[in-house]
Amino acid sequence: MDPSQVKIPPMKDLTVDNITENAIRMNSLCEDERTRYVLERLVTHLHDFAKETRLSSNEWMTGLRFLTEVGKICSDVRQEFILLSDVLGLSILVDSIDHPKPSGSTEGTVLGPFHTHEAEEMGQGDLMSHDKNGEPLLVVCTLKDTNGNPIEGVKIDIWETDSSGHYDVQHPDRQGPDGRCIMRSDKDGIFWFNAITPVPYPIPHDGPVGKLLKMLHRHPYRPAHMHFMFEKPGFDHLITALYLRNDPYETSDAVFGVKDSLTVDIGKAGPEYAKKYNVSEDHALLTYDFVLVSDAETRALREKNSKIALDKLGRKVKMVNGLPVPDLD
Amino acid sequence: MDPSQVKIPPMKDLTVDNITENAIRMNSLCEDERTRYVLERLVTHLHDFAKETRLSSNEWMTGLRFLTEVGKICSDVRQEFILLSDVLGLSILVDSIDHPKPSGSTEGTVLGPFHTHEAEEMGQGDLMSHDKNGEPLLVVCTLKDTNGNPIEGVKIDIWETDSSGHYDVQHPDRQGPDGRCIMRSDKDGIFWFNAITPVPYPIPHDGPVGKLLKMLHRHPYRPAHMHFMFEKPGFDHLITALYLRNDPYETSDAVFGVKDSLTVDIGKAGPEYAKKYNVSEDHALLTYDFVLVSDAETRALREKNSKIALDKLGRKVKMVNGLPVPDLD
User: Fold this and answer.
1) How many CA atoms lie within 13 A of B82 on its CB side?
2) Complex ipTM
3) Binning pLDDT at 50, 70 and 90, where does residue B269 land?
4) A96 touches B at CB < 8 Å
5) Which residues of A touch B77 (CB under 8 A)?
6) Whether residue A88 sits in one domain with residue A43
7) Which of A7, A178, A287, B105 is a good FRET partner for B129, with 20 to 30 A between their CA atoms?
8) Are residues B180 and B267 in the same domain?
9) In this complex, which of A6, A251, A253 lies closest to B252 when CB atoms are compared?
10) Distances in whole angstroms, Cα of residue B255 to Cα of each of A266, A270, B97, B237
11) Ranges for the Catechol dioxygenase N-terminal domain (chains A, B) (predicted)?
């Protein structure tokens, strides 16, 4: 490039005391104000982290090597950076910020690294897990908006492990998708299907994130749960899961996903459900009433929460495309 | 693992307001107090970054994909995470914290990703670059301690690009190391060698870090420089470089490395040097007097700086192995 075109404000002689402001200035030529703000905060926190820990060159190199290993182990069926974000509590934090829920609606939780795009569409009552060692489970759910009206035609992604605690993609010899499906809610907002009772399982812990957990004396287990994802234009994309109450890992989930409102008891079908859904009366039963929030309501709540949080921090911001940037006017 | 062995304090229902303290508590079982402190600061800053930017799920995923790409492109001869740390100003910051310099000693600067361990040992006056297109340069240096006494037998790593701005390892068809060598200072603390005049060059910018720079409208250039690394037991490991004054990128170095005290003029040998070093009088000449700091002096200064910086932040710390940890007594 032609050096005469360099527009970066002159700098040199960078010290502990002036490197941060200079790095921020260096990034200030970007025309997108959201990118500038995100980079400004990123550089500030990265530098403050090093300053407050007095990070040594050895520790810095250990960190860079760790991140390199995390990148190297990523593949089409393994996303170790999501896993790292999960175990550091960042994933659940970002979900809570971006998908705030008004009271009475269904809370979200971590996506995890095992959602795929190859699940097959299923009809009401179909069987989504073919694991013969699992305990058969009837799942009957309703889907409503915050006014209590049923929502028809929502695309619902559902996925769970087999009875050994592994998702289909974790079996190298798998024949195709299993333990996952896509359904649509009917005109009464109902969807129901046959699955197996979820079991607790460890997140993949044979890689760098597993080594980190081991060093920190943390276990890699997640309590038993079933994942759900809901999509319909006009409604906020909901990524959530239902957790089994009294699971041994209920209060120490490796990825911080458990919420009281998402914790359920597995019951028995009993005479009414047995008759209606053609199962025995002691068949395991899971029921849940999901409540989706509209896009407009979510956006308003997100912006309101942002304003409150940033006001508390003394940051004057304005919203651009629903996200805060410094208000310099 | 046996769930009855879980020692993690119970938690669930994690929200924007309580996830950080819970994540820190989850990491608190580690017995090493330095690791606990580094993790505590890391989680705090990572979460504060997300809270202050109100990071969206899309931005989070963009960030994770970027880090994955950075990891994927790393190889034996390319360390893209070092490059990322360099362009964010973190590398120069960590060097400044870990290798503080008393006044009168030679300042350090970024290592960069091109140091290797295959350079050959050379004698005084030998030729370290065989690039016939480069401008021949005589380099004559002295090496002293902070009391002005010459230091003998220091291991000195020296490396520079060829005249096209590429290090040897960047040429896929290279025959062996070139433009790099290891020397030893003599009993008068002198080392001298023949090289070529350094040229400005871009850092590797065909990968994710290059894309980041482009998005930020930053150029990838470094001003012309020659790298030096000094090692001798009892002295603080010095990683530094000499920069050419009036280089077009002197005040906009992509990796923030330039310091006034490391900026030099290339002169002419003149009659005295011409005779002594057997070159013509108008042969290009670079001279520099390096000053190394003892381990003990560096450690004392590092601990003093840590105390001052952390006092300013209101953090009560004690030093363990030269690094701060919270002082809980």
Assistant:
1) 20
2) 0.93
3) very high
4) yes
5) none
6) no
7) B105
8) yes
9) A6
10) 57, 69, 17, 21
11) 32-105
